[in-house]
Design brief:
Layout (H helix, E strand, L loop, with lengths): L1 E2 L2 E2 L20 H17 L4 H9 L22 H8 L6 E3 L6 E3 L14 H5 L8 E3 L2 E4 L2 E7 L6 E4 H11 L8 H20 L1
Helix pairs in contact: 1-2
The structure holds iron/sulfur cluster (SF4).
Amino acid sequence: VKENNRKRLVSACVYPIKEGIEVSTSTEEIEKIRKNIIMLLLLRSPNNEYIKKLGEEYNVAPPERYMDASEVEDCILCGLCVKACEAMGRNAISFVQRGITKKVSTPYDEPSMDCLGCEACAEVCPTGAIKIEDRKDEKLIWYRGFGMVKCSVCGKELIQENILEFVNEKLNTEEEPICDACKRKAVASKFKDSFQHILK
Ligand code: SF4
């Protein structure tokens, strides 16, 4: 970013936009640094598909002697999940530990009562590092199982109970849980009934 004739290397995607700044996302210097970062990411997560694709795209391959082919780490510690959770107003996850053991987790790696199970963290994760396990009648994320609300008409799993409670509380409402398909059917049937009434 160039501002008042001063150039600085920042993450353009999170840098606040201001009048008069000049943003470059590809210069010789940036490309060189980007390649070095991808090299480090490849050393950390050599088996992650997203990182492997980046390596191919930028033609980067770390020296084999530094690679651990058995490494299965997917998290690159970008912190987007922590920010997403913060934006949800929950702060259920954060960076814990230091140095090479630094990771994102809930306090003490235990189920957190602050977690809603909303999956926003998993949604923004670029490498798919946050796993969501579908179990019978519940979803497991961050060590915690979340019961599912079912459509009151067809019984299809709709949404995590906690999310529905959260939304109802925020909107001060208590809607009957009905899936989109059943809602459409109900509207179509009402429309059909009123149409027949007009024809009679
Ligand atoms: S699923 Fe839990 S940890 Fe992830 S964003 Fe939602 S509240 Fe936060």
